[in-house]
Amino acid sequence: MKSKSLITTCIAFSLLTAVAAAGIAMGTRPTKLAKTAYGSVDFVNNAITAQGSGFTITRQGVGLYTIKYDKPFTETPTLVIDPEQKSIERDGANYTAVEGEADPTHIRCIVTAQSATSASIECAGIDPTSRICTDHTDEFGNTTTTCIYTRLEHADIPFSFSAFGN
User: What is the pTM of this model?
Assistant: First the structure.
């Protein structure tokens, strides 16, 4: 398990990044945030453990979580998660690997649904065995190949998050 100082540093960095991304810091007048929820989630002996403030978390299945905010926000808050899965795009039931990003088979987390009261988190990577490729030939005889993936591999991994807003 990570040391408390490392977890605190990760949470603080995550919150600072979220604030800067929302334009609250960085050259604008500071705004007091009415509500925040932040935490880190880990797994010990197949049991979920959480540290932080302003939330409860429920494991819905392997790599699937619901974060419920103790005090609802007035609108959907800004939510930052780490490690974030940036290498997968979802289109309905299919997934594509994003060019130039990290290996999409590595397990990371993504926010799949969000509201003023809760957020759904999915920690997964693309299942490389689910790859389906199709060749497309244009009117000039040029062929391109498009690949999609039909499954993700889910895993319980440690992650941290910060939600803030009014």
Answer: 0.67
